[in-house]
Structure formats: C-alpha cells, structure tokens
Amino acid sequence: MDLGLADKTVILSGGSKGLGRAIAHEFAQEGAQVFVIARGRDALEATVESIRAAGGTAIGHRADMFDAAQIDDAVRACIKAFAAPDIMVSNLDVPDALPNSAFDIRFDDTTDQDFVRTHEQMVMSVIHFIRAVVPGMKAKRWGRLLTVGSYAMKEPHAPPLQLLLSNTERGAVVGLFKTLSFELGPYNITANIIGTGAFDTDLATGYFKLYGVTKTEYEEQLRASPCGVPRLGRPEELAALAVFLSSEPAAFVNGELVTITGGAYQGTF
Amino acid sequence: MDMGLRGKSALISGGSKGIGRAISIALAAEGAHVTVASRGREAIDETVDLIRAAGGKATGVAADMTEEAGVAAAVTEATRAFSPPLIAVSNVDAPDARRGAAFRCGLEDATNEEIFEAFDGMVMSVVRLTRAVLPAMKERQWGRLVNIGSKSMKQPHAPPTQKVLSNIGRLGVVGLMKTLSYEYGRYNITANIIATGQIATDLAGDAYKARGVTFAEQEEKMRAQGVGACRFGKPEEMAAVAVFLCSERASFISGVTLGVHGGMQKMLL
Which of A100, A206, B157, B238 has the highest Cβ tally under 10 A? Predict the structure, then answer.
C-alpha cells in the first residue's frame, strides 16, 4: 500500500531505542525524512547511521523532551534541516517512580509535588511539543499527531505494581488527544494514541524485573496462557501501526486510542 | 508498506457495493485473491470486473451471507477458485437497513420474531462465517477475522433514528469478536472490528435522502459544528484500515474495535 509518506517530515521523540527506533526506521523506509530526538548520543548516532545505511534520510538531535526550551530548539532545528514537521510522534518514557525509586505507589506515599512533577513530564511536555509543531501543520492543512501511550490508558496499572502517577497523567493525555482530534480535524490534522501492550524491548524487560520475573519467564507465562497471541509484541509491529496511522490513507482515523496487545487487553473497548 | 497479502485467499461478504466493494478492490490491489460474496449478481460482476481490469484476482458468488447455505456456497467458491479463505471480512447490512432507510424502531415497534431475526442476521451470520473459515486458518496457523461494524457499537442509535434491532445485534458481535481474539490468538488468528463512522456510500446516501438531506447539506452541518474532519469518509479510507488489519504487519493487533469516523465520534474510549 502506498502510504503517501515520501518526502513527509517526521519529528520523533524517544527515537533512538526500542519502539521509537523501530518507528524511525519504518518511516524512513516509506521515504519520509526523519528527525530523531533522544537524550543519549550513542544510541542516537547508531539509529541514524543504520537508517542511512538502509538508504533512508534521518538526522539525530539530542534533547531532553521534558524541557520546553529544548523542545523548541529541536523543532527549529528540524525546520532548518528538513521542513516544518508534517508528522509528530511523541514517545516518552514514563517517569513513574517516587524519588526513593518506589514504583508501586500508594496515594498516601505521594505529595502534591509528585503529581505536579509527573504532570509536567508526561502532559505539559507533550502540550509544548504540540504547540511547536501545530502551526506548520495548520499552514499546510495536513498533519498527524501521534503519541505512543500504553494500554494502561484503558486499564490502569493496579497492585501489586500500582503506577499511580502515570495512571493519572496517562488519562490526561487521552483527554488532550481526543480534544485535539475535535479541534484540529477541520485542518486535516489527526490526533491518535497507540495503547502499547507488552513488547520485546529493553524497557519492557526492566518492567518484568519490577514484577519479579525475567523476560524468559514472562514469555513462558504468555505461552501457557490460553488468551490472545502468546508472545511479546515485536517493535516492528508497533512501528507498522504508528506509520499506518500517520499515513495519507488513514486520514479518517482520528481521535482513536488503538490498543496493540495481541489480544491481552480484555476491555470491551 | 508491504502488507504481506500476496496470494492470500480473502472472502468478503457484502463485498460488491460501497465499503465492501472498496475493501475487495483494496485487498486485490495488495495481491490477495478475493472472493466477493453478496446477493446481487450485477454488482458482484461489476466488482469482479473492476478488480480483474486492474490486474487483480477475484471471483464472485451470489449468496445471502446471513444464511448458512450462502456462507457454505461462498467458502466453497473461494476454495474452488483459489484456496480456503485465510481472511474473512464480515460485512452484512444491519437489519434495519433492509426495512427501509428511514426505519425507526423502538422496542415496542419490534416483535420478538423480528428481534430474533435481527440477531440471526447480525450475530449468527458472523458465527456461521467464522465456523466455516476457522478450520483452514487453524491448520495454516494464520487468519484474519474482520467485522465491519458501526460507530453505534460505542454509541447505540438514539432517537430520532433509534434502531433497537441493530443496537442489540452490534454489541453481540463485539462480544463475539472479543472472545475470538482471546481464543484463537495462539493460532496467529486475529479478530478485530472496524466501527464505521459516516462514510459516503449509496446506502448512507439513501438514508439521508429518506430524511430529506443531501450529503452536501449534511457536510455543511458538520462544518457548522466544527468537530473533527467535518466531512464524510470515503469508502477507500475504510478499505485502507481493513487492509491494514488484515495484513501480516498487524499480527499483534487483536480484540480491537477501531473507530473510523474522522474524529466526529466524541466517545472517549
């Protein structure tokens, strides 16, 4: 299928590892020019080099996407190097630990400041990113806003690993994207979310550790389960969905939260 | 993007007109071998001719896909012409549509027999089709079940166009597809629903005409409201989503009800 992405400019945060890296590759394969943002130099350079080696067009840019000034710098650099972004993919890791590195968070353990900090990192950073890219999209009357979220947006993390802070802020991102889908639809800009399930990435392996299992043990549990696709998702599979949702043929898919969990997510909707 | 559909046998019920025709054409364009099953011979022949003229492979069978015999005939024809279907798209019109476009139905307007009949047409038709295609999918360890549903799955038809028959039947299909996604994931068979929004088909045109409204007038209303894309979707936009869900690349997407409404459906999840 021709996805109509040749020469489109993609700006992608968290694009040097795991799911983000797979997304960067997939866009480049469709002929888009990819502006990859990440914090760490080595992974960023490796990703950009492998895209170029495969014949794609990519530029790497180091920035901390929790910092508004650095977001603005990144978007300006993208405009200078390529063009105003047609497609924005926001892929942030979840800063879901209390300062003492507790992950299983109970309400009584938190301060208001914990919520404010998480809100700034998970919601305000995305708002800032969107503010920086939407004017260009409106001018072109074409745009795609995509965030790589979590199926926890539909089924929040419960004990024994209750991620209270991100449970709260994930919901806010859903409300934000849904509202943007209303408001920006007339400009042929779509806003969608991917509700990510369990994927075979280093980050996920870290999560399994929090649950007290190794990746191998988790995969064995999946195989023993009678429910859904009995394996971890592959980053390329998520990348295919991200690129499809950003494509020209997906112009009428807007305001959706699409889960990709291999059927593991059990909510009706 | 290579969808990995070359040579796959695909059975499309209601595949000769509107959304179904667009799906038949789009799957054939990806190299699938398409069996178009619907009631009217003329539209079937037109669709098959269109596909063949574009260099695709297709066959047609005149069958009522809400009936056991129709399903059997369609699967037999697909198997004869190509091979047992590994892709089955269930796309039967809502029973209300068969009773006239302007049909409005509350509980007291419908007899128990009519409700049974609607259940048979909407839910049992999908059950029968699924039973007929599952053995080959299980054997080949690959399958795609896609139901062309409705946005009314998330927001049942309310007055003035209340449709108690399809309001009941649609949710039955959701429960069915969800359960299939649990049970057959281990065979690499996915089950998903496309919740159709307002798409510019002849069927939709008739429904608006019966209410004395043209597409252009309705789009005028959409623009005045300013929510989402403010236009009707094109059948090809539905077809692109269907093709993606049927693709090799979408192996980890299952148990999803994906809305295709241009952001004009306001329900959050």
Answer: B238
